[in-house]
Design a protein that fits this description.
Elements (H helix, E strand, L loop, with lengths): L32 E3 L9 E11 L6 E11 L3 E3 L1 H9 L8 H16 L3 E8 L10 E5 L4 H12 L11
Antiparallel strand pairs: 1-4, 2-3, 3-5, 5-6
């Protein structure tokens, strides 16, 4: 197997771009994808994003989180720099934690149409309470739909160590 050629990288415009434009408003159009060269097998891609910020829609106070995105790709994968810029675009976005996680998951489903995806936000406490919304999706009518159901029911049975608090 050889590396990727220019044609395969045609839709990836942000990676290596020295003139990066950081947008301060919710910008799903920032997301870019590339072809999965290993569509013949299932495997997880886990993206750990420890610098997520958004705003409380009521108080405008900042909320900080580590976002964990895990997915089993199908034909397309998310390009990581575009994901970074997309997540940065939430910096001035006012929405509840649960909404942000569902918006992120919906945008990634629209971009990649993965076999399976989960998005888990582990927010730092504010007012003495931390909120850790978990959301997932598996393609309907496939084994991934059953995986999504199982993982949703068991996602917190063996909680990971939380080290962002």
């Amino acid at each position: 197997m050889t590396g990727r050629n220019e044609e395969e990288l045609e839709g990836v415009t942000l990676l290596g771009n020295q003139g990066t434009n950081y947008l301060f408003h919710y910008s799903p159009e920032m997301l870019e994808s590339f072809e999965n060269k290993h569509q013949n097998r299932d495997y997880f891609v886990k993206l750990n994003c420890p610098e997520f910020t958004s705003l409380c829609p009521k108080t405008n106070q900042p909320d900080f989180a580590t976002i964990y995105i895990s997915y089993i790709p199908d034909r397309l994968m998310v390009e990581s720099k575009s994901l970074k810029l997309y997540l940065f675009s939430f910096r001035n976005h006012g929405d509840f934690h649960e909404d942000c996680m569902n918006i992120i998951m919906n945008d990634l489903i629209k971009l990649m149409d993965p076999r399976y995806i989960e998005v888990w936000g582990k927010f730092t406490p504010r007012g003495g309470i931390s909120i850790d919304p978990y959301t997932n999706y598996g393609k309907a009518g496939t084994k991934y739909e059953k995986i999504a159901e199982h993982r949703l029911m068991n996602h917190d049975m063996y909680p990971e160590t939380v080290d962002n608090r």
